[in-house]
């Protein structure tokens, strides 16, 4: 998460540490000097997603096909220069960062409340100045890059540490990101994603040597400098008194600078007088008010020590390589074969969250665009909790008898203060004969186990009785229907109009290009549809988790949002449906979609009816839409509104997007 104020300090106060570079030229020099090794840039993907997401609309649930096209253009620009990219994503939130993670999530809640207030007041998309990440954007970015053929790594520890280590060990031409910690690690050059001009492959390179020259420090001083400014290990709150003393004695104080800038200069002045040795560090620990933990400074400095490096601050027999063999000993899952496969799939970005569950029994979910004042729709964390409880049971095999652990959930939703994790009990899904073992689901082969994988997946969403009908559909449509049926069962306020909007969405999305979707203009934006879009996208991540746990009855590619969702298109269908538009208008005049439309609705309504849930009509009228004129209706589509939907066909999937193969296993 970087050192507060350091990035801006370098850009404002240290011009010699900021140099504009041409990445093509750097790549060419690398090829000359290292002809056997192609030029590689390692990308801190989490600090890049804001840069990559450029579609104009961001509140409606995501313009996923536009975003996918952007990522493809980004990759092609580097490929044209002969530069290989390696993308790193945070795979864990370490305990030392939990406090900061919570602080940011609570701050995001306030920002999201302001976004919904804006939408309700102005009935339009907020400007980019209010931008917050689309729900689950980092998760699906990881899978998108993998789908686009890129090397994508999900980390086992702090991402910035693994990025810096990879850059050093593989002689990369640089790190692309926006995190001031890369100024502290002694690794390859650090390039700015914010300053990148993709058309010319020009950006700013931040120089550690230039920073040291401006501050009167050596490279060896930088880790101590970072710790004394406050970082992920040493809290700023413990350093306030130390900073005041530094400010009093510093010769570099400048009244034209802000307080943080003067603190940076004063701390640098102090550090420059400290000799680089372990004994100096120990003396410093004794004099600083570090509370009860006198090892904070030592651990903070050691956190910047990359594999193969030594530091004068640290005894020579100590390294910062974490002993992952210990992870197995303390993991919830004690089966080495299962644990190892989950770990490998995690690193290679092939599964989703299940390694975190099997290793430490703890998962988290960041903010979603949810309206705290809409009491009709629960938070997505609560909607999908029953499904997650079944997934936990599958993973921990809780149905086999004996005690089993609770899972610690850090899920953001309004009303959850995040003071401590919620302890969630695994619940066995309803499967005749019981849940198959994880070894069966993950390692066995053959048609019988494929069926078990699929039925176990469906059981997590209470749809195990609908297997034959779902298997008859194309895989993305089957996954969509599974999620939509679950949503309609779980949220009693969802109406027939909401169902119509979702079904029309997936049918009309098929065949639409990113450019066509980008050109779609909305007269207004409805806040309830914004929340439903976010809830649906979070549902797709729940499908990813279930698919990973059950041995991949679906290809992960079939569960991606660009296959089944577009934010603006959903807004359009939602508004049309709630103001009573005909099926003709909902389906854009395409008569070939009428039968699939009725049949998919029929399937979902029957699945809900089997669980004693009748979907009622609750049109919300045109209170959010004004001045829109309906087209002439084709009698083929004319249908009066009913208070409840009556399935018209015996076979609810007849004529609906059939597919030939059965669900495919993992690629």
TrEMBL record:
Subcellular location: Nucleus
InterPro entries: Coact_PPARg, PIN-like_dom_sf
Keyword Nucleus: yes
CDD domains registered for this protein in UniProt: PIN_FAM120B-like
Lineage top rank: taxon: Eukaryota
Major subcellular site: nucleus
An annotated GO cellular component: nucleus
Example GO biological process: peroxisome proliferator activated receptor signaling pathway
SUPFAM superfamilies in the record: PIN domain-like
Keywords: Activator, Differentiation, Nucleus, Transcription, Transcription regulation
Subunit structure: Interacts with ESR1 and RXRA. Interacts with PPARG; in a ligand-independent manner.
The protein's role, per its UniProt record: Functions as a transactivator of PPARG and ESR1. Functions in adipogenesis through PPARG activation.
Family (UniProt): Belongs to the constitutive coactivator of PPAR-gamma family.
Protein name per its UniProtKB record: Constitutive coactivator of peroxisome proliferator-activated receptor gamma
Species this protein is from: Bucco capensis
Gene: Fam120b
